[in-house]
Amino acid sequence: MRFLADLVSQVRNEEEKIREGGGQKAIEVQHSKGRLTARERIHLLVDPGSLFELGSYAAFGMYEEWGGAPGAGVVTGLGRIHTRLVMIIANDATVKAGAFFPMTSKKVIRAQNIAIENRIPTIYLVDSAGVFLPLQEDVFPDTDDFGRVFRNNAVMSAMGIPQIAAIMGMCVAGGGYLPVMCDHVLMTDGSGLFLAGPALVQAAIGQKVSAEELGGAAMHSTISGTVDFREPNDEACIARIRSIVEKWGYRRQSPWDRRKPEEPAFAAEEIYGIYDSSPARPYNMKEIIARVVDGSRFDEYKAEYGKTLLCGYARIGGFAVGIVANQKLHAQATDHEGHKRLEFGGVIYTESAEKASRFIMDCNQNLIPLVFLHDVNGFMVGRDAEWTGIIKAGAKMVNAVSNSVVPKITVIIGGSFGAGHYAMCGKAYDPRFVFAWPTARYAVMSGDSAAGTLVEIKIKQLERSGKQLSEEEKKELYESVKRTYDEQTDPRYGAARLWIDKIIDPIDTRDAITQALEAAALNPDVPEFKVGVLQT
Questions:
Q1: SS (H, E, C) 411-472
Q2: Which of 15, 392, 425, 467 gets the most CB atoms within 10 Å of its CB?
C-alpha cells in the first residue's frame, strides 16, 4: 500500500512542477505584456473543476540540451463550457515563447485525433512563436509533424466538428494557418497574425512596416477581414468564446446505453491495499473491478473457462461496458484429455484468448464499449501451448480487437508486455484513450527478462572475440542493462512520448473511464463490424 501511495505522490509532485511551465520569471514576462498564461486562460474558459488534462507528461525528460520543454509547451485536455464537452489546445508561451518542438506537434495532433475519433468540439488558444528552428528537421515534414495540424483543421471542419481559435499573442509563419482554418477566429489587441514578421519582411522585400500595421488585431478586423471578433484583452476574448459555445445546437446522440450512475459498493481507496506488483503475491483482479464498476456488479462471461482472462459486462459511470481484464491469480485448468494443469496469472492461454475473442465480437454485435485492464506478461509459450494452437488463438484475439468498431478504452495497471500488450488493445490498436497507473510497465518484455537475454547475447559476442567476463563483470553488465530497460518501461517514459494519454491515481480509474466514455458518446457513427478471415 505504501509503495503505491508513494508512486502516486511522486507523480502528483512532478505534474505540479510541469504545470509551472517555463517558471516564475517567464510567467512574469507573460503578465508584463498584459497577457494571461495558458493555464490562467483555461481556468477562465472552462466550467469550474471540469478540466481533465491529457498529455501533461509530454516531452518529460526530453530536450534537456535546450533547457527542457515542460508539457511540450502546450496544454491539452477535455473541459466543459456551459456543460458542453470540448477539447482544449493552448500554447504555453512561458515555454520557449510557445514554440513547437517535435513533441509539441505530436501532442497537438494527438489531441486533434482524439477530437476526430470522438467528434469533440475543439478550442485553440494560440500564443506561439512557430517552429523551434534548431529542431526544424524533426518538426516540419512528416505525417505526425507540424503540417498535419493544419490538415486536421481542414478534416475536422469537413466532418462538422466545431473549431474556435483565439489568437492571444503571436501567431506567425505557417502557424498562421491554424486559426484561419477554424470556424471562428478571435484576436486580442496587441497580438500578431502574419506569415512573416516585420524583420523578415524587410529582409525579403525591403519593406519597413510595424507589427500592428502588418498583422495586428485592428488590421485583421477592419482591412483583411480575417478576424471575426476583435477583443481588447484575454478576459474579454475568453468571455466571447464561452458566449459562442453556449449557443451551439445539439447533434445526434451515440447508441451507447447509459443509465443513472451508481457508486461502487466498495471504496476505491481500498485498491491501494489490493494491488500488488510482486509475482509472489498475485492479487484478484475482480477485487479491482468491484471498486470501479457501478454497484460493484460484474456479469462474468464464461467464468469457468480461460480463467486467466476475465471477461464480463458492467456499467461504469452509468455506461454499459464490456470488460476484458488480466486475472493475476493462478488457476487450475483441465485439458481435452482430462489432465489438470496450473495456469499462471497474467498469462494469456489458448482458452482465454478464444474466450476473449468471442466476447469482444459479442460486444461489437451488441454495441457495448470495451474497457481493457492490463496486467499481462504475454502469451503462454512452450510445446503444450503450441500444440493447443496458441498462435491461432492469439491471432483471433488480435483480429477481433483490430476490427472492433465500438469505443475501446485501455487502462494499464501493471505489466503490459509483448504480444499480450497488442491483444489487450495497446496503443497501436486505436483505443480512444490510454490511461496508466504509476505501477504500469510497458515494453516487449520485463526488465529482468530483457536484461538476462541481452546480457547472454553480449557475453557470447565477447567470448567469440576471445574475452572472458568475470562473475562480477557479468553482474555489473546485467545491472547496467536492467537499469536502462527499467527506465524505458516506466510509464513516464511512455507518457513523455505520448504512448499514454494520462497517468492516473488508481482511485481515479472510474472517473477517467467515465470521462472517456462521455467523450466517446459525442460520436454517433458506428461502422459495420467485420472481422475478415479468422483462424479456426
A1: EEEEEEEHHHHHHCCCHHHCCCEEEECCCCEEECCCHHHHHHHHHHHHHHHHHHCCCCCCHH
A2: 425
